[in-house]
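Quarterly update from the structural biology core.
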Amino acid sequence: MTYSRINNLAGWLCFFIAAVTYILTLDQSASFWDCGEFIASAFRLEVVHQPGAPLVSMIQRLFSALALGDVTKVAYFMNIASALASAATILFLFWTITALAKRVLVKKGDEITSAKTISIIGSGVVGALAYTFSDSFWFSAVEAEVYAMSSLCTAVAFWGILKWEAQADEPRADRWLAFVAYVIGLSIGVHLLNLLVIPAVIFVYYFRKTPQPTNKGIIKTFLASILILAFVQFGIIQYSVATAAYFDLFFVNTLGLGFGTGVLFFAILLISALVIAIRYSIQKKKQVLNLALVSTVLLIFGYSSFSMLIIRAHAKPNLNNTNPENAFTFLNYVNRAQYGERPLLFGENYNSEKTDIKNTGKLYRKGEKKYESAGNRSKYVFAENTLLPRMYSDKPEHVQFYKSWMGFDDSHKPSLIDNLSYMFSFQAGQMYMRYFMWNFVGRQNNQDGQLGENGGGWLSGVKPIDALRLGNQKNLPPSIIDNKAYNRFFFLPLILGLIGAVWHFKRNQKHAGVIGLLFFFTGVAIVLYLNSVPIEPRERDYAYVGSFYAFSIWIGLSVIGLKEWIFKKITPAKSAILASLIALVAAPMIMASQGWDDHNRSDSHLARDISVNYLKSCAPNAILFTYGDNDTFPVWYAQEVEHVRPDVRVVNLSLFTADWYIDGMKRKQNDSAPLPISMNPNQYAEGTRDVIYYQDFKIAQNVELKQLMDVLLSDNDDDKIALQDGSKSNILPTKNFKLSINPKEVLDTGTVPIEDTGKIAGSMEWTYNSDYLTKGTLAMLDILTHNGWKRPIYFSGAMPDEQYIGLNKYLYSEGLNYRLLPLKPDSTKQEMYEQVNLKPFFGNMLSTYKYGNIKNANHLDRQSADDVTMFSNMFNSLIGGLMEEGKIAESKAAVNKYYEVMPLKFYSMRHVMSSFYFTENLYRLNDLNRANTFISKSADYMNKELTHLADVSESKNSLSSERDVKVYMTYLGQMVKLTQAYKQNDLSNKLEKDYNQFMNRFAPFFGG
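Predicted structure, tokenized:
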């Protein structure tokens, strides 16, 4: 059998292994985070969040057809698309590794011996399968996100440039360069991370065309690669759209022509210029110029997938982010305008003084007949700036983190050295190297480790080494050893990768340098470019999979390194086989065995079930306010794909500040009538009432919302105040709001049952909880003013407290949602979760809700673990509320439901905290056996956690995880008191003994 045939068959074998792995561990429905939005948008070809992924949507839409009309299977088949794209990535990675290995081992004209064939194929199999089972890549491979197809684009582009290199001396070899350019152009419609393959592509071209490269040439090539990357990122993707937009502005506003004529003229101009330039390059036989021009054309062809978004935006779909139907909204879309800017090379620190605001350009919006001014783009001017500002965000939680991480006091002004220290220690260390070590060394657990506290870090399984970093590892706690993400690779994949890298640099510095460049640009360079803030909503390891891809190439090449360095005394064929087998066990096999359980989502459907719960627990024709990704995107999926409760109008408050989103809320969507928003488009258009600031007018009484809205929406200068620039702005004159209640409306609409008539308040009075109004809050107040209780209003229980705009005392829990009810406030209820609407709450928890198989599911990621705690807290609130009203039978039924659907082992500290209140309810119900069993399990969990923390503290001679220690000790002490109160003396004595033991162990670290 020829080498070529073996290479092809082995590559497809790797594809098959990867495909089977991913399909077997696939999420069966929508996952958390962006997946729900991507699935919903692909199914109906809608417009996802910026900067868009139109090619992904179109491909996923094709896969959805495999569901054959069964909408409950649409998500599954879109997940299949990611699995197959990921498996194809493994196929091209295999061929990339074998091409690199062959280039070193087989010189031109040499025969490929069986030993060399085994070495080359062994390298490909080991490297490809190592990446198959790497933590971050596997995570994205089993859900409908963009990162699987993004990895495929990177793999195909890099494979393509190696194909060109192998055939560069042949007459038609440059077709491979054109192919690479087209793939990169297509990848823009997948994810912009793919552009980072460009520098590696340029260097392959340079080294192939330059037999004797020089340091000067390498530096020039590096700078050229950066310029080409910038040309694609800014010139093609952004500035071409910006130029088209300003052409359209001139043609519409100055020449009086229709919208789009300027864009059409620019397109004709650009196409003509490219055609003329290409003809010139052919006539003058300028090969490099011709190649550059053809590549540019193919990049633009690939980028043209974005035309789908413009076409669909004109159809006004339900999900229509930014409404990119015209030149300027499309420009905002591709520029990711809604996310703001971050300083990269020069800018402010978190505590730099703001001295002024400067205009940086004009904003335009589409009017009736021409483009209208939408104000000015502006930015603050700061008194102090620094090079490479890494600590720049002035959000209070970010400022607190910077100071805590760096040990700064309140007066400290960060210097360049401070920013570099933060960049290396946190951004590159905690937020990149930690992820790198997860993939190739091992992982503690799936807890969020962004803050650098206990959990969420890397762990090798080599206890002496782990102990040097983390302290005594003798008694590992359940939060680690019972966590499915407790993966120990014992440094073996890392060691193999380093062996492969050293061997590669010794044998072929050019190719090794190219892989190193790919590793740098898809890893550390992203850290530098993104300049991320701390405390992100979730871990961001998926952004760096390109660098893990590059490192996996070196893991594969380690096979040849092992053969040549360690097994060189035995025959070449035997040494190749032995090196391949050892590397196969040390990397792919151990990674697969350790990682299977935490990546297997085949029996979990929590995201889908929670999204359906949100909707089904709403009354007919309801309005549901949400805020974050996980209480919005899965709900969009449930409505748009599975058609669950299409009468409910979901309003995402984080998007409600945009005029295009308010436009959508004023239209009928699915079976939901338009929202009762009275504002006309001119009153909320971009640049109008974006922010309305509070100015205290000393108004003593609460102001009726209708009266307040008249002032807030007034265009009369008498209702505005003058700003420094001479313009006038509406202001918020009071925070004391009032909404008068018509009891007949409340009763007629079924908002409050007749038996609760006496509880209806004469008016709702509350204090707004912010110093400014956003456009979204203004629209929400408009809804409250004009709804007349015709449509039930709910708020997701997962949003930050400030999003409730001070309405807390009128919000009643019915499970996942809070319902707005005009009832007289209960002064005995101090916390919002204590206010429950028992009848629907009970019905939801016991009959309506599904629990995503969290009791038995094999896959339990960090979000799922948080949701276990969320459901536990909801059961506690329900049982407590039922007991307060003397409904003992219903309370016991709720307890039984808890035991039916909830896991009885603990997954986190929050779960333990919640379990305390559940145990307290069991004691109150005189269910002593189950209470004692539950509290014993809880105590056992805490004892093991505290034992580990005490071991670590004593070994490092400093307190480890102070917050965890205090929380566990507090709850352990509360459990002593609880068991004493219910006369469980033996249990209480045991708990007290444990408590005192830990007090003695931790006392030295608390000063006694």
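The radius of gyration is 31 Å.
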